[in-house]
Amino acid sequence: MAILKRDLALAYRQRAELMQPMLFFILVISLFPLAVGPEPKTLQLIGPGVIWVAAILSSLLGLERLFRDDFQDGSLEQLMLSSTSLPAAALVKVLVHWLTSILPLIILSPLLALFLHLSEPMYWALLKTLLLGTPLLSLIGAIAVGLTVGLNRGGVLLALLLLPVFIPLLIFATSAVESASMQLQYTAQLAIIGAMFLFSLALAPFAIAYALRVSQT
Amino acid sequence: MAVLSVTNLSVVKRDRLLFENLNFAVKQGGLLYVKGQNGAGKTSMLRVLAGLVAADSGEVYFSQQNIQDCRENYHQNLVYFGHKLGINQTLSAVENLQFWCKQHLVSISVDTIYDTLAQLNLVGLEDIPVANLSAGQQRRVALARFWFKRDAKLWILDEPFTALDTQGIDLLSNQITQFLSGGGAVVMTSHQALRIDYPTDELTLEYRI
Amino acid sequence: MWKWLHPYAKTERTYHLCQKLLPWFSLLGLAVILVATVWGLAFAPMDYQQSEAYRIIYVHVPSAVLSKSLYSAMAIAAFVGLVWQVKTSFMAMMALAPVGATVTFVSLITGAAWGKPMWGTWWEWDARLTSQLILLFLFLGVISLYKAFEDKQQAGKAAGVMAIVGVINLPIIHYSVQWWNTLHQGASIMKFDKPSMPPEMLWPLLLSILGWALVSGAIFLLRMQNEILQRELKRPWVVALANKSAASSEGK
């Protein structure tokens, strides 16, 4: 609990840095209409994919700071030597990361849906996939961040490690939105994403804790 | 009774054997001073002793129990002070220490924290972000832990005197002596000669290629 | 499990085991590949649908089959290393990874080459090719993570975690790509129902899979020995080994 309070306070004080992935997200998405033309039909077709790809990329940008400061200033060492359980602490940190750098993206998403001419059912489907899928990004991402935190040049490597792993999520999420655009059911896709989320919620904290221990060597 | 004992300890780092088959014990009230050149493996050894890193072979025991098996109990009775201070730059000194105390289940009032910071000559700097403090002042903030956790059984200090002025060194040396006379055990490294008036065991690590 | 593995946690024993196994794998593997290739390319009957072009399967199928097995083998090595703290296991993992990446790459190239006469294009977003591409990325991710660390012990553990994350994800990727593929049908994918393969075609194929497996095993053994020597360069037994081989080459 103390970690939750501390990390939220920290995030508030570093809000300028938190804004950056968000701006990146909006920028990337506004590039597409400029690149492929403002035809509403085309935009609607590529819209869900664009939003998801942009969300994945900007979450990668934000992920790096998840353990970086704590590793560099030694807070992580002290955390490991304390009575707090490391997997629980990792889970709290991931939660704070999601609240502070992913949730704003989701709140912004109606605006972007407007940019890309998504229809209303498509938007609702997109929102549901984002709500279920982005925690998965944070959880799995945190494992790789834990592993690369000791390397000072982890940024590109992080993308290299994580993007292939995120492909199934991307496929299921965009196909859900596509089904919605055709007025079809998309519960199956949501169920799969939900299952992946629960699975990673159960295992990822331990993997993250292990990764952080490895980074201490 | 030995607070900390080590059997057949070997540590390899970057495929280089730092030391092997090390055996020693630190008793209650005992001070172990680890010496050696740069790169001899002092820091690595202290990190293994603290349980941050696993050794390649050999065991570390805390009160006759393997530290792998009594992690929580061990860490509750340990204060580790490493190269990295464990102080967040954006938070203030008081916030940092409050958080540390909560994390380590040390219940201490805010007033005590202010008092201790005053003892450490940090009056007026308690509530500004730590990033604005000098290197020596930041170290003092981190050292305040030794004032809060005097009921610990073991302190591990890695180069605690770096960047401290003479007055800071005296303050810390006194604190260590007091802790030792109260029955605590201390393992430390230092490149400065120790200015602690207390019987000291020495352990020298050779630099190996 | 531990009892069985324990002797090979010692690098020296593993090195000598590799030494003993190497000739078997390499000679047998080369022989089998030779037989299978000649058989497959020259003597197996021509496919009536795909004419001679189908013969690339004698390279494509073995590499595709092996790529997944090598990834699994790598993940198993990583798991053993993480759970039982076996150092040699991480070495095995990293000896396997580049072999696996190469094999995956070969399967992609041959897949593309096969695709040209079949689909009329070098690259078709076919489900199997796409999963192979993702598999290649997973291999490359593990390798680059390993290379990024200077401390190879730490590197092994880190890459091991990533290999296991990948192997859990592998079936999900496979499934999701298939789903995606059926969803986006209608492109020019030529669906050819696989008729059960006549034995004259099947036998050389099975043989070539065996041959490829043996040769990959041989390359793995060589890489493993190399890795052990590099990591233990200063240990007495390596020095003794080097002196011995230097002495014997001088004697000639």
Automatic annotation (TrEMBL), chain B:
Gene3D superfamilies: P-loop containing nucleotide triphosphate hydrolases (3.40.50.300). The lineage of its organism: Bacteria, Pseudomonadati, Pseudomonadota, Gammaproteobacteria, Alteromonadales. SMART domains: AAA. Its EC number is 3.6.3.41. Keywords: ATP-binding, Cytochrome c-type biogenesis, Hydrolase, Membrane, Nucleotide-binding, Translocase, Transport. One of its GO terms (molecular function) is ATP hydrolysis activity. PANTHER family: ABC TRANSPORTER I FAMILY MEMBER 1. One of its GO terms (biological process) is cytochrome complex assembly. This is Heme exporter protein A. Signal peptide: none annotated. Residues 4-209 form the ABC transporter domain. NCBIfam families: ccmA (TIGR01189), PRK13538.1 (NF010061). PROSITE patterns: ABC_TRANSPORTER_1 (PS00211), ABC_TRANSPORTER_2 (PS50893). It comes from Paraglaciecola arctica BSs20135.
UniProtKB/TrEMBL annotation, chain C:
It is a multi-pass membrane protein. The chain crosses the membrane at residues 21-44, 64-84, 96-115, 127-146, 158-181, 201-222. GO terms for molecular function: heme binding; heme transmembrane transporter activity. Keywords: Cell inner membrane, Cell membrane, Cytochrome c-type biogenesis, Membrane, Transmembrane, Transmembrane helix, Transport. GO terms for biological process: cytochrome complex assembly. One of its GO terms (cellular component) is plasma membrane. Coiled coil: none annotated. Its main location: membrane. It is found in: Cell inner membrane; Membrane. Pfam families: Cytochrom_C_asm. Residues 30-184 form the Cytochrome c assembly protein domain. NCBIfam families: ccmC (TIGR01191). Belongs to the CcmC/CycZ/HelC family. Required for the export of heme to the periplasm for the biogenesis of c-type cytochromes. This is Heme exporter protein C.
